[in-house]
Amino acid sequence: MSQTNTPTERFAGVPLALTGAGLAVFITVMALQPVWVLDIIRLLHRFVAARLSAWYVLSASAFVVAALYLAFSRHGLKIIGRPDERPRFSLSAWLTLLLSAGLGLGVLFLGVADTLTRFAAPSTGVAPYGSEAAREAMQTVYLQWGIHMWAIPLVTGLALGWFHFRRDTPIRLSSTLFPLVGFRAERYPGHVVNACVVLGGAVAAASTLGFASLQLAAGVSSLFGLEDSPALVLASLLVITAIPMSLVLLKRHRQVQLLRRPATISAGVLMLLLLLIGPGNWILSFFSTTLGDYLTNLPGLALGSGVIAGGHASGEQSLFYWAFWMVWAPFTGVFLVSVSRGRTIRSCVIASLTIPVVGILLVLAISAGAGLYLELERGILVADAIASAPESAMFVILSEFRFSFVLRFVLVLIVGGFGVVMLDSSSWFLSRLSLPADSSMKLFTRVLWLVLTGALAAVMVVSAGMTGFRSLVIVAALPVMPVLLLSLAGLIWALRYEDREKSASVS
């Protein structure tokens, strides 16, 4: 007599089916009718910016408040994992892992490009290409890559980790909604929620792959004098995708992660060389000044929803970043909480909002600050060139310093390494979100996500470029944002329920 499947088993493939079919249809239509699809995406983007931008801004700030509440309330002393669990990593190894989480493609691409673009087009009343414009640009980019960037995935990861480590639930957002909706979290409503989150993660992964391909193509063009053409971008995308795909098919995908450490070390060495070869004292002085500006003006900067609705460039940039951190939150959040397992919520929050924040802001100050130094102190015009070709930002800056070929060659290796590691990690995580951990289809699912992510990145690169990716991410975050807020509510409910259980057992 055959066993009857539980509701969870019967519906387990729903997120994969929904997102896989949806993405396949979108990629096909985008390839056949790119202008029509882009018009719809941009229309939705304008609607979000005009009508819903304040929700993005307030939600991002709500995660910062929630993180501080979790750290300094009575819940801060609770252990991530079992109550008697010990930390998995030593203190030094744990802090190193947190610091490494901040180094990646985005900070060396989008962070630098957006800073110099903002420097060339500051807010009304600020003269472009001046010292005040430089300080304003750094404040804005610090906001986008600072505390908010880490609070959103941190709180999401705490919710996922709490239910997974304490209740043995799957690592899915639907698990965090159980206190709010009961067993519906294990049926179609919960799996539709998971599908939305997986879809957002796929869009984020494809966007990062697209950015990596654009930057890698710009680096190869800068090094060897080739034309930075769509064909070169697609070739770069194919190389980045082919490496993890081959290793997954050969069942050697664990070896991809061996690239993470040398890529991270190389990025650190590159920043150190830029300090030594370039204006190290000027950059560090500029970092301390702008960091003080950021911390002093943080509340006003964080709640400036009006500039987004008004269509200002800095507000549009912030809208994109809030959206990206939300759709990417489960991925980064699970990493932050997994390496913090066995430690208290308070220590996890404090460490996650200080160590990687300071590290990533210092990297921004060195990389983007080098470009600002060229403009302000040496009179070398790089901002306009970067504004017209953002993907070449770091290569334009490095070309003005000694040993530029070596520096740019190292950066090309860093971009390629981070791109491969990111794509491999995202395919693993998307597989984990879309199918149970014990599924026999893990290999097929990994390959499927690599193919879908690569195909989505390819059609978007060819049809829309960076602006299309930004619009698509903003739209994809629309269904994810309320899910993350509900997962926060589920976490608070679960923490309070545990306190009530302890009180009842004592009495």
Rg, rounded, reads 22 Å
Output mean pLDDT: 86
- The count of helical stretches stands at 23
Strand elements, count: 0
Largest sheet: none
Distance between the termini: 47 Å
Oligomer: single chain
Q: Architecture, according to CATH? A: Up-down Bundle
Q: Helix share of residues?
A: over 70%
Question: What does this entry show, briefly?
Answer:
The protein has 507 residues and is an all-alpha fold.
Structure report:
With 507 residues, this protein is an all-alpha fold. The protein has one domain (31-187, 207-418, 468-497): Amino acid/polyamine transporter I. The chain is 79% helix and 0% strand. The chain is built from 23 helices and no strands. α2 (14-32) runs antiparallel to α3 (34-72). The model is unreliable at 1-11 (pLDDT under 50).
Topology:
Elements: H1 7-10, H2 14-32, H3 34-72, H4 91-100, H5 105-120, H6 131-145, H7 147-167, H8 173-176, H9 178-181, H10 188-224, H11 230-249, H12 260-277, H13 280-302, H14 305-309, H15 313-327, H16 329-339, H17 345-352, H18 355-376, H19 383-388, H20 393-398, H21 404-434, H22 442-463, H23 465-506
Helix pairs in contact: 2-3, 2-10, 2-22, 3-7, 3-15, 3-17, 3-23, 4-18, 5-6, 5-10, 5-18, 6-13, 6-15, 6-18, 7-15, 7-16, 7-23, 10-11, 10-21, 10-22, 10-23, 11-21, 11-22, 12-18, 12-21, 13-18, 15-23, 21-22, 22-23
Features:
507 residues; 79% helix; disordered N terminus; Amino acid/polyamine transporter I
